[in-house]
Amino acid sequence: MTNIKGIYIFGILLLCATQIKATVKRDIDVSSLYMGISEDRLPKEIVPLSYEVQIEPNIEEQTFSGFIKIHLRWINDLKKISLHAHFDLTLEDTKIKLKQMTRDFGNRTTFEDITILRGGRLPRKSIYVLHLKELVKKDSECMLEIPFEGNIWETADGLFRGHYTNSTTLDQEIYLATNLKPNNARRLFPCFDEPGFKVPFTVSIARPTDFTTIFNTPLLRTDPHPLLSNYMLDYFDKTPPMSTFTFGFVVTKLQRWNNEPNLSSPTINIWSNQLDADFKEIHEKLYLTYQTIKDYFNLTIPLPKIDVLAIPDLPTADSIGIWGILIMRDTELLKKGNFVLARELLSQWIGSWITPEWWSEANINKALTSFLAAEFVMTMDGGVEFNGKYPMTILYSLYYELSKRYPHSRITKMKQETESFKTELVFRMLNFTLGKFTFQNGLRSFTLNHRYKTFTGDDLWVALSNQAIKDGTLETHFNVSDIAKSWINQNRLPLITVNRDYDKATAIIDQKLYLRERPHDVPEKDKMLWWIPILVSTPDSIKLSNYTSYVWMNGTRQINIANLPKSNQFIIINKEEIGPFPVNYDPQNWNMLSNYLQTANGRSAIPTYTRAKLLHDAWNLAYAGELSFATAFDMTLFMKYERNHIVWSPVFTFIDHFGRYIDMSEVHKKFEQYTTILLAPLYEELGPESENEEHSVTEMRKLAKTFLCRSGYQPCIAEAQKSFELWLNEPDTPFDRIPKEYICPVFKWGSMDEWKLGLKHLSQFPKSRPQSERTFLLKMLVGCPSEQEKINHLLQLVLLESNSNFTENDILLILNTLTGGSVGYTSLLKFVSKHWTLIQERFQNNTNLWDKLIGSATGMFATKEGYNMVKDFYDQHRGEFGSAQHIIEKSLRNIKEEAQWSDQNLPVIEEWLETYLSKSTKSN
Fold it and tell me: Which cofactors is this protein said to need (predicted)?
């Protein structure tokens, strides 16, 4: 359903605005690391064998110079050398030397000069080509010597400079650091800048005498710089074979925390600006995490040390993980939790020691480390860090995004991030279905065979397949590659439909593309098939934790299963979301599930994630037109007794989503009554906030209060208005003195005077306060009112009077917020229609604002009445819409589709609500 997107996004924004954190924060390194990867691939006729690098930064002038020797081998006869050198790197081909190496019978090496005719970069490529006078024969070895110069950047690319305040002296300190991922080593020195080239480095780095240099490997020795009196030259141990993007160093005045020496290898050092901070707990956490990873792989990483640098104001959102070094924001290191540390330490194994062959494999690398980090965190703290929400937060987002007619639109970054999340869930599915023992041993075999090497996805799938077949958890004619690629290579998710034959104790199971938005006219959807594990749980087996008793839908459209339980017993497919796919059942099975969950034994028997899944699937399938809304509502009846926040999470989402979707219909008031009956017992039982209560309880109370206030729950409204009296009686009261969850109900249910007081505060908003507070207040003033009078007053100021308090960005925000409810977009359409001439004259030449205005005024209706309103508006001003002509025509097409949905579903919903409310009245 096309309108759902806008409503859903607004709902999420509103939840965020009210500071209700309904999702767990997963600091997964974003896919932007791999966006815009240069495809400037080098020919394979020449390969590097080793590097010798000297780098001399000039911190004051923000430049650096250096010298590199590259030991090369010729794979084919060739008269030129191609290597990477960024446009920012200065090379002089007249200073570049090439010497051929020969060895005599005594294994002594001699060098013979080879003439370089010329050098230069290829057009629009960061490839530098040296043309030679003579043909160099296959298997020859040469030493290439190149001096170079470059710039130190302020942004976190290549070699960059940062600043922080010294915690002791309060002086501004400078540091240098490298961030060479994914292909920025070519900004630092000419090289073969592809992950597949893994060779050792011998490195020396110059630094001022009062600084320290931290490199991939330990310091070997330090000498005075031969030319600069106030500089030292640090020499470091030779590195193991490694890719250029894992090369890195930091030149800093950070101090090493004096921790107790640990006899085991590697030594983990913490470098920080806060010398008075107690890093003992963090140090222990780092060692515990390292030991957990080591035990999992049964391999000790070949590092004598790992330096963890806590840098204030690090100019990148992500940690910088390189071979032997982890660079983090100090706040990130000091915060509670293990996930980020686990993920970054894991990258020393899978990423640095074992490296993707090319960046197309980086998604698999990132997904695997994220999945394993989550597993280790849950092993170490029982899942406390994730608050019980992993992997549901990721999964529900995937279900929503990948069920659209056009996922991601053209947002490449979002697409890459989604693909990584999906791949992470594929690893989780394999961990369940192959068995944790098999999955772990498969990874052990994989890491053992790829140390110091590169890998492709197929290498990983082969290792898992071989182990699974050996352990008997995968049939010999199956392979993990087919399973994994059916999920990774398709930018969609499947829907499983189960139709039982109760007389024969069998069922037919179908798979098809899961589509939530309508119409379901996706090209080639019938060709999409997945390998899907079908795990059947019954009332007798629902508590069992065995996930390996399943059958595969091996890329087939339909299968039959037998030996199902009696007709009076339900079945559940995909318990605990072992795979990322929703499941639909026949009405009888849904009915048995609903009834079972309303019993105390049933709620305790069905695991938490499975209860949440059943709710989530039922509602989303109803939206998709795959299930009756009566059945979806039936599945909420047990929530009267449910108190687990994980199960409530999807309920809050669909209350928000569905309430906004139907708020123009007569059904909406009945839905608000239903919401109050559903949430009031939960809210009252939770009571007032107490000290040291779990975060999940606080979160659940806030959500319950938010939706009760929105539904007109009188105790909440009274509480909100009492709090708001601070403003009425004391106009100078700071805005942040009023609890944010009370702002919206007052603006919705309160008087015009109360709303105007908020508007006055907006116009006089103090510049000393964070602008995020002003944005929040503006959203509440626009998105909360239930009377058109308030909206009209605001639109008069914004659209007609050119009020100086509102910027163009404010207007865009107002228009976007108005799409979140029928009062907003209905008022906007009527206002624009009434004042058409003035509004058209003012905005039509600003196509950005004009298009947004027409889209917001017409795009969110979902009923026949709404269609008629927009059609009348269109007919009245036909040919006058300019750049927004296609927008209103698209709105009309979408509303017609939505109106069909409303005609089909609203009567069913209304009948169910009337029956439910009638029973509730009698029971009271």
Answer: Zn(2+)
Rounded CA-CA distance 24/38 in Å is 34
pLDDT of 8 strictly over 50: no
Question: Of all helices (H) and strands (E), which one includes residue 616?
Answer: helix 608-623
| Cα 253 to Cα 210: distance, rounded to the nearest angstrom | 7
Tokens of 69: 């020797």
| pLDDT for 553 beyond 80 | yes
CATH 1.10.10.10 is held by the domain 44-356: no
Determine whether 595 is exposed, middle or buried from the number of CB atoms within 10 Å of its CB (0-12, 13-18, 19+): middle
Say if residue 709's pLDDT is above 70: yes
CA 477 and chain centroid, separation: 35
CB 127 within 8 A of CB 183: no
Give the per-residue pLDDT at 527. Answer: 92
For the record, the structure tokens of 775 come out as 């944005």
Instruction: Identify the bridge partners of residue 64 per DSSP, sorted by sequence position.
Output: 57, 150
Q: Give the orientation angle of helix 412-433 with respect to helix 480-488, to 10 degrees.
A: 150
Integer CA distances (angstroms), 733 to 637, 730, 738, 761, 763, in order? 43, 6, 9, 10, 15
What is the spatial distance between Cα 325 and Cα 334, in angstroms, rounded to a whole number?
A: 17
pLDDT in tens, 10-54: 333 333 333 333 323 333 333 334 444 556 789 999 999 999 999
Q: Which two tokens stand for residue 895?
A: 């509303």
Contact 673, 910 (CB under 8 A): no
Whether 662 and 610 have beta carbons less than 8 Å apart is answered as no
Residue 75 CB: number of other CB atoms within 10 A? 14
Kindly report whether the global pTM for this prediction surpasses the value 0.85. Answer: yes
Helices of type H across 472-544: 480-488
pLDDT at 568 over 90: yes
Three-state SS string across 554-604, please? ECCCEEEECCCCCCCCCCEECHHHCCCCCEEECHHHHHHHHHHHCCHHHHH
Pure H helices in 264-338: 280-297, 330-334
Q: Give me the percent of the chain exceeding a pLDDT of 70.
A: 92
Residue 380 has pLDDT above 90, yes or no: no
Kind and range of the H or E element at 148? strand 141-151
Q: Parallel, antiparallel, or unpaired: how do β-strands 201-208 and 172-179 relate?
A: unpaired
Looking at every residue in the chain, the average pLDDT score rounds to 88
Nearest to 908 by CA among 679, 499, 678, 632: 632
The CA distances from residue 293 to 310, 341, 347, 379, 731, in Å, are: 22, 11, 11, 11, 57
* Burial of residue 754 (number of CB atoms within 10 Å: 0-12, 13-18, 19+): middle
Task: Give 796's contacts (C-beta < 8 A, 6+ positions apart).
Answer: none
Residue-wise pLDDT tens digits, 472-518: 999 999 999 999 999 999 999 999 999 999 999 999 999 999 999 87
DSSP annotation of 221: E
Q: What is the pLDDT of residue 563?
A: 93
pLDDT band at 260 (very low <50, low <70, confident <90, very high): low
Label residue 677 by pLDDT band (50, 70, 90). Answer: very high
Distances from the Cα of 25 to the Cαs of 17, 29, 171, 580, in angstroms?
A: 16, 12, 34, 20
Reported as type and span, the H/E element at residue 141 is strand 141-151
What residue spans define the domains of the chain? 44-356, 408-491, 714-786, 787-901
- In the predicted model, is pLDDT for residue 312 greater than 60? yes
pLDDT of residue 737: 67
8 Å CB contact between 18 and 706 = yes
